[in-house]
Amino acid sequence: MPPENPPDIQQQANGPLPARDQQILLVIMGVIIGVFAVCGIGSASNSLMSITQIGLVKADIVQSLKDEGVPDAELWVERGEGLAKRMVWTQMLMQLLNAVALGWLAIGSLLMKRWSQKILLALGWMWLATTLLAFFSGIGAISLIVDAIQSVSPSMGGSGSVMMIGGVWVAVALGANLIPAVVLVLVYNLRDVRLTVIHRDPVERWTDSVPLPVLSLWTLLLTFSLYLAAISAVMGDVIWLPIGVQGISGILGGVAIAATVGYAAWLVAKLNPIGWWIALVAAICVTFLSVYAIMSLDFWELIAQIELPDELMAKIRGEYTDVVDRLNRSVKKLWLPAVIYGCGLLGALAWLKKFFNEEDEAPGLGLRQD
């Protein structure tokens, strides 16, 4: 991580402009980030339209099931329609969250606010670190992609060609995540950019007292909290099925966890050690539950939860047994990437512990003294 703003930050704010004023660069970046925010709103609108399209194809699906001799076809299609719509609603909520966050940061960059420069830099570092960690911990998951492709489409050919396809998928996903993160780090870490926002926004901001690595942790916790809250509010009754939790318990549990992590983000921004401890417990729990869910996941049990008619269930077992069995075997391979990713998070938290010194707390407040 780069060094923090120097201690004489207010003196610099009142001094002359840096040798190269980066106002134009900040405006350009603000416009680019704003375009992504608008695109997020457009994606959310498309998701909303797709909900209508789900209803339009309902009659065709019902008729197809009736032709297959499935009893009560309307009932099963309505169940599937409800689940599909909730998945789209979840996707739309996450897209709107992204759009709001990007719009807020875009405005900050356009107005050359010092908080936006530091948050965008912290976001870039967090994005870069989590992407690389996911890549190195998930290299072995390429074999899972290969097995999944071959199980669904055996005609794809030998493992070599499928491995190449899996490698291309991973490369594209890695590049799509690395490029924005690298751009954020390179631009908002420029010395002249930092000096420009300090001078043009001379008012002291809350981000000034937060070390950059801690601010990166804040962005991670806040993002996780908001995403989990959105997913749990709409899909909380089904997303916890792999660990045996469903119904209203899943919804309330997911929202409670999201609120706790959000509270940890607030404490972390204040350098309160309790926030670090909550983050540590959350990382341990997420790692353990991920491994447990992976090892206990059984697609046959998930299919059974839908309570399909006996005729349709018999058809699935007759035609797709090999596919489901192969998926069950393939998913088990994800336990090692999950452990590696979890250990990476725990290692990062252990390194961050030095920023949360209990001896510097103010009694009764949990805030560090300046």
Ordered list of secondary-structure elements with their pairings:
Layout: H1 9-14, H2 23-56, H3 58-67, H4 73-110, H5 114-137, H6 142-152, H7 159-188, H8 191-200, H9 212-235, H10 248-269, H11 273-296, H12 299-305, H13 310-319, H14 321-331, H15 335-352
Question: Describe it for me?
Answer:
It is globular, with a radius of gyration of 24 Å. With 370 residues, it is mainly alpha-helical. Helices cover 75% and strands 0% of the residues. The protein is built from 15 helices and no strands.
The span between the termini is: 22 Å
Number of strands: 0
Overall 3D geometry?
globular
Can you give the helix content as a percent range?
A: over 70%
Question: How would you summarize this macromolecular structure in one to three sentences?
Answer:
The protein has 370 residues and is mostly helical. It has 15 helices and no strands.
